[in-house]
Design brief:
The structure holds two protein chains of two kinds.
Chain A lengths: L1 H5 L2 H10 L7 E7 L5 H14 L4 E7 L8 E3 L14 E7 L2 H19 L4 E6 L4 H7 L4 E6 L6 H4 L2 H6 L2 E4 L7 H13 L13 E4 L8 H18 L2 H28 L3 H11 L5 H12 L1
Parallel strand pairs in A: 1-5, 1-6, 2-4, 2-5, 6-7, 7-8
Helix pairs in contact in A: 3-9, 4-5, 4-10, 11-12
Chain B lengths: L1 H6 L11 E7 L6 H12 L3 E9 L1 H11 L3 E6 L4 H14 L6 E6 L3 H9 L4 E3 L5 H18 L1
Parallel strand pairs in B: 1-2, 1-3, 3-4, 4-5
Helix pairs in contact in B: 3-4
Classes of the chains: A alpha/beta, B alpha/beta.
The complex binds guanosine-5'-triphosphate and magnesium ion (MG).
């Protein structure tokens, strides 16, 4: 998997060999504001899955520092109790800026975990970057984690994140204001067009206290209900198609970013830049020429 | 921190992103030292898997393997280094991951440092070591690792 992160060519052959074995895992995305309790919820969810004899892999995404490119990947702090359980595999990944890091390695990691035969693959991200939203779109069921006390933030929460939610988990419900958040989400949902469509999935809204393993059974049931709904309304092939479409897009954009990354700083790059600076070339002409360069 | 912040400008970013695990084993509840090193490494361009307090040697090794790190840095203050650090090395070996290098930091007496090194610990840093020195060590060890892959 390390090769995948680094985009090494060896990885490609391995991936191609693995691919026929994918398509069996159930993917669940967990997205929400920093500190909303995603990792704690993932930890509690893994525990519940293990009680039900389901194996779980988790990809925990954290942002890379835009300055150094480094990252502190601390999600495991909340998941340590599973460290010695063979039925649990946790992998921390950094976004690595936008030059192909996340978009290149994560779809690959996801495939590896799928091929390894895990029943469930969880993907934790804060969901602020476009990359991350793209990643979460790989999931069959998306859980968006909200917390009380964000005030008017429900409206402010990135539209993209709200749209992907199949389930809202109002975590930290031990704190004041959880019911209000639940009401606000429900009000918001009732304004969606799909609210009037009998066949549409109406996102469930439930309260959890991840630190005390509370609300996890209902969360699990909500995931099952969403899965059942998917099965009733879309064929397996359609669901797979949606993920594959996203996967192929991610692989293309990852490759594209990687190629741009390799182009940056080369002589060709610099000479076009200089030409644009000298006003002998327009930015569009330079881009056209450089575009040809990477393909 | 300010010290490491200014330094990152002259440190060229690593060619491939190196990954290291920073963790604490043993019973003491201080992770300040570990956090300082974790942040310094991040600022130097490393991906740091931070596992927090009270890890068992077994859990550290299992995590290191899952996360595919180049190296493991263990912070220790409780005086239990003589048993815990070798146990990590052993656990790594058991998992076929003896290529992952191990370094330690904490209040460790001179004599013990020699013993630990005999047992395979690549470097031991005592309090007061400049973070730059730790970063340089980790970078060199990671590069060596990458060359051997
Ligand atoms: N009161 C309360 N605190 C919680 C609950 N769940 C998590 N926390 C606390 O919230 C803090 C953040 O939890 P994490 O699980 O690390 O949150 P996260 O969303 O994964 O954070 P990032 O990955 O940094 O974005 C920790 O101190 C948790 O103990 C809860 O249900 N109630
Ligand atoms: Mg987290």
């Amino acid at each position: 998997m390390r090769w995948l992160d680094d985009g090494r060519p060896e990885a490609r052959a391995e991936l191609d060999a693995l691919y026929p074995h994918t398509g069996n895992a159930y993917f669940i995305g967990i997205t929400g504001h920093p500190g909303s309790g995603k990792s704690t919820l993932v930890d509690a969810f893994i525990r519940l899955c293990r009680e039900r004899d389901l194996t779980v892999a988790c990809i925990a995404v954290d942002p890379s520092s835009p300055f150094s490119g480094g990252a502190i990947l601390g999600d495991r702090v909340r998941m340590n109790r599973h460290a010695l359980d063979d039925g649990v595999f946790i992998r921390s990944v950094a976004t690595r800026g936008n030059l192909g890091g996340l978009s290149r390695s994560t779809p690959a990691s996801v495939q590896v975990m799928d091929a390894m035969g895990f029943d469930i693959v969880l993907i934790e991200t804060v969901g602020v970057g476009q990359d991350e939203i793209d990643i979460v779109r790989l999931a069959d069921t998306n859980v968006v984690v909200m917390v009380p006390g964000l005030g008017d933030d429900i409206q402010a929460t990135k539209a993209g994140v709200m749209e992907i939610a199949d389930i809202f988990a109002v975590n930290k419900s031990d704190l004041d204001g959880a019911d209000r958040v639940v009401r606000e989400i429900k009000t918001m949902l009732s304004m969606n067009e799909s609210a009037d469509d009998e066949d549409a999935w109406i996102p469930s809204v439930l309260k959890t206290v991840a630190t005390h393993q509370e609300g996890l059974e209902p969360l699990f049931e909500a995931v099952e209900a969403h899965r059942d709904w998917l099965q009733a309304h879309r064929s397996d092939r359609d669901r797979d198609r949606q993920r594959i479409e996203q996967l192929v897009r991610l692989v293309i954009s990852g490759e594209f970013d990687a190629r741009i990354g390799r182009l940056l700083g080369t002589d060709t790059w610099k000479s076009h830049l200089e030409a644009v600076l000298d006003r002998t070339e327009t930015p569009y002409e330079a881009a056209d020429a450089l575009f040809d360069e990477i393909f | 921190m300010s010290e490491t912040q200014t330094k990152q400008s002259d440190a060229s970013p690593p060619e491939t992103t190196h990954r290291v695990l920073i963790g604490k084993v043993g019973l003491d509840g201080h992770d300040r030292g570990a956090k300082v090193i974790a942040r310094a490494l991040r600022d130097a361009g490393f991906e740091v898997i931070y596992t927090g307090l009270h890890q068992t040697p077994e859990a550290v090794a299992a995590t290191a393997v899952q996360e595919d790190v180049d190296g493991v840095g263990i912070s220790i203050l409780s005086g239990a280094h003589n048993t815990l650090v070798p146990e990590i090395i052993e656990a790594l070996e058991e998992r076929g991951a003896d290529d992952i290098f191990v370094f330690a930091g904490g209040i460790i007496p001179e004599d013990d440092i020699a013993t630990l090194k005999d047992q395979g610990v690549r470097a031991v840093f005592t309090p007061g070591t400049p973070t730059r020195e730790v970063i340089d060590f980790v970078r060199d060890a990671c590069r060596e690792q990458a060359d051997n892959r």
